[in-house]
């Protein structure tokens, strides 16, 4: 719930009782430890267990088969969080939906598009780029719809590679946009 620009002093001032760190790093470990957060929970290896202390779920082979959200909910259960209601609610604004409208218009998309998100930021196992390319081609032909490959900014090169491998001339890459903008494109696409 803290952004990447947070400092130990900011965290200490807010007197957090617990922190669920979904992206373990040395920086985040130090922020939570020196920020005075008593319950520090995360995934990690031995080094993270030393500083997180309260609850660290080591990734085991059986966890690699679970969706990322399930792994994160397992960690949240360590502090007694209610994990029964798993419905994700992402409220899109008018501006978010206008972004999607502009994106479709600027790229000549009329009607339905298909979004494919090949990346995972390295957080969990994924299909090979060649498999995503073949999948995209199959869907595009079957539904006669353009493909939009989505991902984070650092994944742009990989997305371009998948687009080229697919052989789909009208395939697009949407990388590095705000989450809500990307979600609005998904909503407008109707198939992702």
Q: From the alpha carbons, calculate the radius of gyration and give it in angstroms.
A: 20 Å
- Overall shape: it is elongated
Number of helices: 8
Task: Give the oligomeric state.
Answer: single chain
Strand percentage = 5-15%
Gap from first CA to last CA: 27 Å
* Total strands: 7
Give the helix level as a range of percent.
Answer: 40-55%
Strand order of the main beta sheet, please? 6-5-4-7
Spans of at least 5 consecutive residues with low confidence: none
**Largest sheet features:** 4 strands, parallel
Q: Order of helices and strands, N to C?
A: HEHEHEHHEHEHEHE
Main structural class: alpha/beta
Describe, in plain words, how this protein is organized in 3D.
It is a single chain. The protein is of the alpha/beta class and 192 residues long. The chain has helices spanning 8-14, 26-34, 46-52, 68-77, 94-106, 129-143, 156-166, 179-189, and strands at residues 18-21, 39-43, 55-57, 113-116, 147-151, 172-175, 190-191. The strands form two sheets. Strands 6-5-4-7 form a four-stranded parallel sheet. The model has no long low-confidence stretch (mean pLDDT 81).
């Amino acid at each position: 719930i803290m952004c990447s620009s947070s400092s130990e002093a900011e965290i200490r001032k807010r007197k957090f009782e617990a922190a669920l760190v979904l992206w373990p790093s040395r920086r985040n470990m130090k922020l939570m430890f020196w920020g005075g957060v008593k319950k520090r929970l995360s995934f990690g290896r031995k080094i993270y267990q030393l500083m997180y202390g309260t609850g660290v779920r080591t990734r085991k082979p059986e966890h690699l088969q679970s969706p990322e959200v399930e792994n994160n909910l397992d960690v949240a259960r360590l502090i007694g969080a209610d994990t029964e209601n798993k419905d994700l609610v992402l409220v899109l604004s008018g501006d978010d939906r206008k972004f999607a409208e502009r994106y479709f218009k600027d790229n000549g998309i009329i009607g339905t598009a298909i979004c494919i998100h090949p990346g995972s930021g390295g957080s969990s196992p994924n299909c090979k780029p060649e498999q995503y390319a073949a999948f995209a081609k199959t869907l595009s032909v079957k539904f006669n719809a353009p493909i939009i490959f989505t991902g984070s900014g650092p994944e742009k090169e990989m997305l371009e590679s998948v687009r080229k491998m697919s052989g789909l001339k009208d395939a697009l890459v949407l990388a590095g946009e705000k989450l809500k903008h990307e979600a609005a494109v998904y909503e407008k696409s109707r198939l992702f």
